[in-house]
Amino acid sequence: MDRRELLVGGAGALLVTPVSAGTAAARSENADGFPMPAPERNLPTRLPQSDPSRTLLELGWRFHEGDIPVSEPKGHNETYMSVKAGNAPGAAAIAYDDSDWPDVRLPHDWAAAQPFVETANVSQGYRPRGIGWYRRTLRLDPGDRGKAIELHFDGIATNATIWVNGSLVAHNWSGYNSVHVDLTPFARFGDETNIIAVRVDANAKEGWWYEGAGLYRHAWLVRRAPVAIVSDGVHCDPRQAPDGRWRVPVTATLANIERGVAAVTVEATLLDPTGREIATGRTEATVPTLDRVETEVILDAGSPALWSVEKPTLHTVRTRVLRDGLAVDERRIAIGFRSVRFDADKGLFVNDAPVKLKGVCLHQDHAGVGVAIPDALLAWRLERLKAMGCNAIRMSHNAPTAELLDHCDRMGFLVMDENRIFNPAPEFLAQLEWLVRRDRNHPSIILWSVFNEEPMQGTEAGVEMVRRMSAAVRRLDHSRPVTAAMNGSFYNPANVSSVVDVMGFNYYQGDYDKFHRLNPTKPITSSEDTSAFETRGAFATDSAGHVITSYDTEAASWGGTHRDTWKEIAARPFVAGGFVWTGFDYHGEPTPHDWPTISSFFGILDLCGFPKTAFDIHSAHWIDDRPVVAIAPHWTWRGREGEPIKVFVASNAETVELRLNGRDLGVQQVDRIMGNEWTVPYAPGRIEARAMRGGKVVAVAVHETAGAPVALRLTPARSVMAGDDEDAQPITIHAVDARGRHVPTANLMTRFTIEGATLLGVGNGDPNSHESEQFAGPAGTRSLFNGLAQMILRAGNGRGRITVRATAEGLKPATLAIDRADIAPRPQIAPSPPAVMQVRDWQRSAAFAERPDPALAPADGDNNSWDVIRSGQPTPAEARSVWRLYRARVTPWKRIAAEGGVIRFAALGGRAELWIDGTRVAVKDAAATGPMRATIAPGAGPRTIVLLVEAPAAQPSGILGPVGIAPR
Ligand code: GAL
């Protein structure tokens, strides 16, 4: 039996044990009170590679926290040069010395390692974000010459400026959309490496929640055939024809970087879930040079298996570009066949069957890792939501990580995909268009939301803005309705509800009926609701201590408790469903408190994904296909013997019987929405809720009073990890009593060490904890909070074993072994840190018949008499022998400045003298091409390198190969 399915845990300690009819016995052996599913022995689902021309570019990055000011150029020449292509100054410069910057691996959220600081922004979780720089050296294989080369950042928090080889290639003002940089015109190949520099301004805010800082999503290098499908260039749009058959129009956008027009064939093939071909089609296309063309193939899918929440069947559309019969490019897009319809009276229909949206709003944030959530952890979070019957996610309030949507497709979630910035000006409209273009193939997405709670929602300007934004969405996808999440102004003469397809209510539940009455043809959903507060594992509110009870009694004034809110939504068929604010806690927005509280209380699960009572409440509301029963609170209340304790039971059965130590405390008719309550004088022992249907016990929840903690325990989500250097999972740390029962009241400090994996971060779900969430090495600490703490591990490489050891004072230590399976890592572009400092750019004088003075230099203000050349670029032959000067100004890397270095010319043509800072340091006597080297003395600051070359007649001369300065 799959325990994960059956254990719907919350409230610090509970158990749900379906009992098959006839075997009404309680499972007392499971009464250890541990609220998380038992570990499984399975590997994470690796998402299929949709674009084989993309390779991860996540290793070999160097990071600098803080800004790096650019010094003012000196004189006219320096100013003139500083604004030229390839010559970006400061840390964007090719030659900038980043050798003492630490290496980081992407995804990377530097704010997650920051301390909590009272003067930092409350909404962003009191973590200073600041400005940071990333640099990476990239070696491109000479075999990649001629390919279309792109750099993809899936998300950068927040404002980013990107340079390649000293040229500014992109600025991006959005923490949530991806940045695609066409590297092709800037690319260098072989040993002449490329330098990518990114300045990230994370002081910029786009939200009122923790947004992280840095290159926090995946980064890719794309290398494609010169005639190929552009990025996000395939649109598959399954439609059911009136005859009932499904057709898939497949549109592919192609680009051509060759010098001539290209004739290609585009082939689209529909594959069923087993990979069998169902339909295929081809079309011919002529792609103009440096331009784009759109092609269409319509596939007849017949009557395929449908995609639904219960059975999310995915098909694949494989699109290929063929040249001379050979496939030169390919994309694989997962698609699902499903229809979606919002009815103004009856709500949502998927495949013509009614579906109530049992949804949650999510921010991308998790304990320990911040916004840089590994793919496997994203999937784990969705599994937790699925386990409570959740079927819908609102990506609040921004474009999510692409992989999150892939997991939603695979797991059967319905998604409201939301745009971040409400603004139809071209830059922001482009962000919305990017969102639709990237996401429109996902069967999970059923709604586009153009905004969340905008003060202009009730104005004429707001209406005009939404009209333009909806039109932009429809140009790219007219299969899905557009919504906007409104929080008021519903009845203004001008308000955006008149121009969206589905009205989205944030809160304002009291207006559902009135709005429906006044707008009887407008479909409605709650786009956001609830905003209730709970501290996980706490059952009394302590306002001074910023602790909030988990009995589902406290909520924001604009929201409602979990139960009251769902009651309103469930009662109205015309409300398509709801999206609870929020599925998980997140850093920042510590409402209703502030400092020292640093994270939210809204989550159904806490920041670590540990369930609160709200989890049980929603399980009872939302799960129809299996019995649910859960008890709050836990039953470990030493010192409160005889005192009345409120016992809350959530269930979806018909009746529930409560027993304490075998004594019957009464049977109640289940109130599936509001739950059932008993007041029970506390006596240690065993409290048991027996859920019944038709007079038979169908599920039992038990808590037993735990004794003092005697040992630590480590419980992973999975007992095996992929040894692919990428798989990640949470490990729960908790304490048990002498009988192995989870102790829900333990708040001990724990220490741990890890081998065979990387410790990405830690947490415990306490919104008031200021303990560090990240550690530099393989060891960390974290106190248990109401019995639980969590560490997040990333598996190392190859088959092996991960070992975690945890200790706490006075307790028996715990050791956990996790197998690391032999799974090949996804390919990564190898890091290529430069061993030598390259000298690439030179000024070259005119030719002289006589040996010129090596001190000769262009006059300041003279931009024209000297050529600018690159190392390796030969000076053409002259009929007679001539003299020339080559000048470069370089600032040696710090190590060279400190210890001295060696400058090496790989190939010099002609006789030559090398002068550094006015001193001759080397001579090359032979005219034939050959190398040259000289030592460079230690010393800080810029150096002037002058090469005096006497070119032999009729021969190319000068700097014929690379020039490098190596540390000594
Ligand atoms: C809403 C808002 C959310 C969050 C929530 C807290 O108004 O859309 O982002 O701030 O309130 O209750």
UniProtKB/TrEMBL annotation:
Molecular function in Gene Ontology: hydrolase activity, hydrolyzing O-glycosyl compounds
TM helices/strands, residue ranges: none
InterPro entries: Beta-gal/glucu_dom_sf, DUF4982, GalA-like, Galactose-bd-like_sf, GH, GH2_Domain-Containing, Glyco_hydro2_dom5, Glyco_hydro_2
Leader sequence segment: none
Residue numbers spanned by region Disordered: 26-51
Residue ranges constituting the Glycoside hydrolase family domain according to the UniProt record: 712-816
Residue ranges constituting the Glycosyl hydrolases family 2 sugar binding domain according to the UniProt record: 129-213
Biological processes per GO annotation: carbohydrate metabolic process
Gene3D superfamilies: Galactose-binding domain-like, Glycosidases, Immunoglobulins
Domain DUF4982: 642-699
Positions of the Glycoside hydrolase family 2 immunoglobulin-like beta-sandwich domain: 233-338
Glycoside hydrolase family 2 catalytic domain mapped to chain residues: 345-582
Keywords: Glycosidase, Hydrolase
Family classification: Belongs to the glycosyl hydrolase 2 family.
Name this polypeptide is given: Glycoside hydrolase family 2 protein
Organism encoding this protein: Sphingomonas gei
